[in-house]
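User: For a benchmark we're assembling, each entry needs the component sequences followed by a predicted structure for the full assembly. Here are entry 17's components. Please fill in the structure.
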Amino acid sequence: MESPEHFIELRGISKRFPGVVANDRISLEVRTGEIHALVGENGAGKSTLMKILYGLYQPDEGQIVVKGKVVPIDTPRQALELGIGMVHQHFMLIPRFTVAENVILGSEPTAGGRLAMEQAVQQIEALTRQYEFVLNPRELVANLSVGEQQRVEIIKVLYRGAELLILDEPTAVLVPQEVEDLFNNLRRLKEQGKTIIFISHNLEEVLEIADRITVLRGGMVVGTVLAAATTKAQLAEMMVGRPVLLQIERPDVPAGDVRLSIRDLVVRGVRGRPVVRNVSLQVRRGEVYGIAGVQGNGQTELVEALVGLRPVAAGEIRVDGEDVTRQTVRAIKLLGVAHIPEDRQRRGLVLPMEVRENLVLGYHLQARFTNGPLLDLPAIDAFAQERIRAYDIRVPTTTTPALALSGGNQQKVIVAREFAFAPRVLVAAQPTRGLDIGATEFVEQQLMAAKAQGMAVLLVSANLEEVLSLSDRVGVMYKGELVAEFGHGEASPQELGLYMTGTKQQRAGAAAGPP
Amino acid sequence: MSSGARFFLLQIVALLLAILFGALVGSAILLAIHKNPLEVYGLMVRFNLTRADSIGSILYKSTPLILAGLATALSFRVNLFNIGVEGQYYIGAIAAAYVGFAVTGLPRAIHLPLVLLVGVAGGMLWALLPIVLKLRRGAHEVITTIMMNAIAGALVLYLLEPGLLRDPAQAGTPRVRTPDVAPGAQIPSLLPLIHLLGLRVPESSRLNWLLLVGVALCVLFWWILGRWRFGYEVRAVAQNPDAAEGAGIANQRIMFLMFILSGGVAGLVGLSDVLGYFGYYDIDFPKGYGFLGISIALLAKNNPIGVIVAALFFAFLDRGAQGIQVFAGAPREVITILQGLIILAIVVGYELLTRYIRAQRKREAQVTPPLQPVVAPAGAGEGSD
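Assistant: Structure for entry 17:
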């Protein structure tokens, strides 16, 4: 059968939730055999639209046309029967199973009532050969890297006969080398006639991999453009609705005295093993020190030790020369160490509490906010009003609970709070993770403002571009050690990636197994 | 109307609906035993509200319930489940009885505050081990406080042995009790004040000043939890211990203090009976206030002011149960069933309401107009090929 020009046509799809129009008359055509990217800010309606396509939601209005026929898609099973498969952002794999066992889970081939494992393995091998995936079906998933696990997820969908693959933020969890491998896989899938919908935040990646790009904003389609005929700046403007600073200006601040000094720091993890090993670094006044690394290589523990949340096993931390190694969280805070925590909802905010209460969290004992044993609510409210104005936090009243705010506004609450008390050192962990372009731009500008004000900034981020563009120096953490350090402009993302995965090391013998 | 006020009203409505639901199921039961529910409920309300002795009874009964509800609510406020109010009040009561009869010759101005403080100390002491085990070793406080209840029950029996706290004057009688407390340790009656207000509560009522102590404590804790720095830290610890830790709040200290305060309030629960009514602690001392306290805290959503209302409501139902038994020939168990159903309905109702309010709050925040004008996109090319 001749394949139709459009694999999928969405015609006037609308979906409303109480008080919100998530999708507003969205029309979209995805051609057979193309890679079609879907971009938009958080809340633009991408996920809702894909959930409709995958049968998880029903549209209130509009039609879905698959291969020229109007069809209802009521369940994911129906979607699969139509050849639509979803590769989720969070993997749903069982580590104790092999690749093949994970792939067939839920649609196991049987022979005479018994599991036909060998047949399954052969089928999967055929698939990996056809699409040139490097993957051994007999390997345990527990032994696979993140990139390989993602391949298993893709094979899972292909095994079920999908012709259209929806990939939801597939690169968010990958290091640059893995992204390249993924893109090679995707190109190969396309050559073999598969259609791909690619959802992403990262405009550079979208421009590299996609044929066409559809931009959503506020639940509506802003437009569909050819990747070859557009630029990053144009896309960003379409997404946000105003021109966006893609390259944050780094203020030229001469680095001053050492404000934060870490020497031979050792921090132990849950099971008593050192997860931060002999890390030494210094951050000067007006300097941004970036820490790059794959999640789980000790960055979290390093940050927690710095702000007093985790005991230090050995070594020393000094802030402006003062030893804070064994100080309490409160004492370190009072000394002027501001903290933008990695998990803002867990560590940074008490979500059910009012915005104004969250704006003084940790600083609520300051004399200006108290009145004997009482909190001085009028003073706190005035402070909150001032912060909300200064940081353009979108909130109806100062007494709205923080849980009602969007992710970007929640992060603004934390930034507004942490910058309010003349900090000397700023520890920012993943400060832009999960934020959309507008909010990311804001947070990055604030980091640069901190630098300009003479703070020493320690920036831990999984976003390599961000680390490289904002930092004066970049250190790479691998297995708890600082394995490399570069000045601004000395390293490319690809090079950092090699250090992050342990392929390269600056210092001989560093990170070579437990000491 | 502000959204805060609207959500508060919604909570009241949810509460009334829960009571209505309980009453409806109760009606079905009454119909099944051939009683007219309207008559029975009508009689209950008339019996309770038109007789001065009923008012006195309701207020008297509510005193230990307010204290038990407050004690439980204080621990619930930091996500600790103090099931041990029961045992804590046994210990507080027998300790207060001991200091009440063993110390003599003190003026009331010294002796009464002293016995009240001894009661508080007894409750705190009984709460100490569970909270230390919880914070140091992670032992679940539900298990340990239930154990402590059993120990308290056995301990008071042991203390009532001859030669210990048993009244030697009662030797040869079947009465197992402590000696009478000194007059200076007795809580004065509230009747003179009540009579001043014009309520003709009969002299037989044992209504005493501890009621006002309970109400005052509720108001005090409401103020502390809502307005004090300490209350702010309590709310932060309860709603997100990780963020509280990140803010430098000592989680364990807050949890310890709230649990000990809970035990201290629990220590007062039995004192209305010991020092305001019997004048001694005996083997048949009233039991079960601690468990009613759990229901009351649930009904009040751990709000100290709500505790007063919920305790009065429970006392109202309890008095009403007597009324319908005597005058309508309806079994008082109907009222017990009603209590259970209302608690069940309210727990479900509050949960649904919490979700609804959360969704509404989100919606309000989302429709907040942006403060900057949004520029129309420039050069957004249509599918150009």
